[in-house]
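May I ask for whichever protein you like with its backbone structure tokens?
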Amino acid sequence: MSSVETYLKLAERPNTERSYASAIKHFTQHWGGMLPTTAAVLARYLADNAYLVSINTHRLRLAALSRWHTDHGFPDPTKAKVALQVLKGIRAAHAVPERQARPIELLQLQQVSDWIASSPRSNRQTEQIHQLRCARDHAMLLLGFWRGFRSSELVGLRVEHITVEPGVGMSIYLPQSKGDRDYEGRHFKCPALSRLCPVTAYEAWLAVSGITEGPVFRQINQWGHLRAEAMAAGSVVPWLRGLFLDANIDNAQAYTSHSLRRGFASWARATGWDLKAMMEYVGWKDVGSAMRYLDLSNTDLQSQFESGLTAIPESALPTKPATRRRPSPAPSSGERSYLKVVK
């Protein structure tokens, strides 16, 4: 592979490449489409799959097909009016609320942390394997929560990019992340805490594992050997759900890797962080991205309404509503004649 091809390949994110390859495979193999394609065929493809996938999946497939045509020098059919109109119609007919990951609450974080600390080893585990798994799981859980990391960011951490100041905190450098479109890299801070401390858990993991360089979080095989490569980003969800299931967290299957990020965002909002500080800490570039993680609970909604009610002083409220008398209707012409006769 030439140096030009190498750098072109590095410029494309691996997750994007996999997603686009899967989308092209669906169009050509599962649906039976031919490449290059036309706008009319593309519109029929969208209509045939209208009920089957979300609108975001439709957009992803269109983006993949658009990239394929552009890269191979063909006209882009995804920009044709008929394709755009069909997509608009699908969005109107099959609009559904976007599914959000369930946020991890602080009490749940404490419950899982306590379970890890006191969990018994299974009959198939040696003490060494048990210690390795517990130390790794504890560090992943706490660091993922308190830093609000995505799964790709969490498994992308490297020892040589992390500096720890005991009792103070840690500095983390990520060469690339989802929001870093230009590969500029980002520095993150994480403080040491009095309890549920990610810094202490990270140091304990390094001490038990003996890792001095390379990926921080790695797979542990059945013999207790650490792999040299990092855990796959796709393994974070089953890992987290398994951990929650073992710790007896209700509805463990409702949690995903985004639950760590949303859990921190919910905790930060509840403890009074302003939006700007939260965006800077987590790494959100725009308000829209941040607001997707901030749900207003029924309790918060009620509190806001009640605070507005209590803002009205009691003295300003009337003690008893005034009684208004309805005026008597004016007598009709016949009634007036009758009254004159009576008089």
About this structure: The mean pLDDT is 83. The chain is about 50% helix and 5% strand. Residues 3-93 form a domain with the DNA polymerase; domain 1 fold (CATH 1.10.150.130). The first strand starts at residue 162 and ends at 165.
